[in-house]
Amino acid sequence: MPVSDEVDASTTAPEGPALPINELFASLQGEGKLAGVPSTFVRTSGCNLRCWFCDSYHTSWEPTHAWMGVEDVVAAVDERDPDHVVLTGGEPTIHEESFELLRRLGDDYHLTVETNGTVVPPEDTPIDLASISPKLATSTPTPDRPPAGAGGDGVADAADAEAADADPKATDWTERHEANRIDVDALVTLVERYESQLKFVVTGPEDMSEITDLVEHVRDAASVQIPDHEVLLMPEGQTREQLAETRTTVAELAAEYGFRYTPRIHVDLWNDAPET
Ligand SMILES: C[S@@+](CC[C@H](N)C(=O)[O-])C[C@H]1O[C@@H](n2cnc3c(N)ncnc32)[C@H](O)[C@@H]1O
Ligand SMILES: Nc1nc2[nH]cc(C(=O)O)c2c(=O)[nH]1
Ligand code: SF4
Ligand SMILES: [Mg+2]
């Protein structure tokens, strides 16, 4: 579903600070060190990257949204009365108004921001957990790895390659995604400033050398420790079936390398249903 029924379906931005909202819902945090914690999710639309596997296709490859004033988002969160709020996307940090929203929510809620780690928020932005998911080389879209979301079957095959050639979306984004997916300085600032987790989407053993190199670089440059238990390996997969194929390998890699494994419990529970 492109835009949640729960969000006001305004197609034009209201006066004052506003955000393009794709979904706003209550669920359990499905990933990372707060997995299982009841949380209200605010999902902005729009992203500066294009992972081929993006499970939020309608915020990246085909962004759709309704505009909500920041005050209306705050009211919708207050109505659900959670302890924890998760701001996600798309990439929430590409919108200045996300920082205004966080400032408005900061006194009342524990705030997690799900981010690809390419943008540093203004210094006064309250964030209790920076959930950083740096994007690896295997996230880059190519004709062999076209977008898997909404309508795709998640299996890159000749038909997808042909479709990607015909529709230049995937190849248009190959270079742009590759050029922008990692910003070590931004990652260092984020881990120095906030309680953090580095949550890597893992497609297989070939991802491990890039993960260990990147973690080493960030550790060398940062003035804070990054313990192994804050480096999380998460299996790639938008559906139960896809996760069933990757999770054992990824769990075994976590055990082998001493990093933490995170499940995707919302996928186990509700598969790829919207607003979960
Ligand atoms: C949709 S993203 C939005 C936040 C931000 N743009 C990012 O990528 O971190 C939310 C989380 O889902 C993860 N994710 C997206 N598609 C996935 C997939 N197919 N399998 C596993 N994790 C996925 C991202 O890596 C990120 O941790
Ligand atoms: N339940 C649930 N937990 C999540 N944790 C991070 C999510 C995200 O899309 O950022 C997410 C999500 O989409 N659903
Ligand atoms: S960075 Fe996040 S929202 Fe953007 S395409 Fe990748 S997974 Fe999707
Ligand atoms: Mg999600």
UniProtKB/TrEMBL annotation:
Cofactor descriptive note: Binds 1 S-adenosyl-L-methionine per subunit.
Q: Which residues bind [4Fe-4S] cluster?
A: 47, 51, 54
InterPro entries in the record: 7-CO-7-deazaguanine_synth-like, Aldolase_TIM, rSAM, rSAM_sf
Query: Which portions of the sequence form the region Disordered?
Result: 134-176
Q: Which residues form the Radical SAM core domain?
A: 34-272
Q: Where does Mg(2+) bind?
A: 56
What molecular function terms (GO) are annotated for this protein? 4 iron, 4 sulfur cluster binding; carbon-nitrogen lyase activity; magnesium ion binding; S-adenosyl-L-methionine binding
Keywords of the record: 4Fe-4S, Iron, Iron-sulfur, Lyase, Magnesium, Metal-binding, S-adenosyl-L-methionine
Q: Report the pathway entry.
A: Purine metabolism; 7-cyano-7-deazaguanine biosynthesis
Catalytic activity from the UniProt record: 6-carboxy-5,6,7,8-tetrahydropterin + H(+) = 7-carboxy-7-carbaguanine + NH4(+)
The EC number(s) given in the record are: 4.3.99.3
Q: Which cofactors, if any, are listed as required?
A: Mg(2+); S-adenosyl-L-methionine; [4Fe-4S] cluster
Q: Quick one: which residues bind substrate?
A: 28-30, 43, 88
Function summary: Catalyzes the complex heterocyclic radical-mediated conversion of 6-carboxy-5,6,7,8-tetrahydropterin (CPH4) to 7-carboxy-7-deazaguanine (CDG), a step common to the biosynthetic pathways of all 7-deazapurine-containing compounds.
Protein name, entry field: 7-carboxy-7-deazaguanine synthase
The organism of origin for this protein: Halobaculum magnesiiphilum
Taxonomic classification, please?
Archaea, Methanobacteriati, Methanobacteriota, Stenosarchaea group, Halobacteria
Q: Which gene encodes it?
A: queE
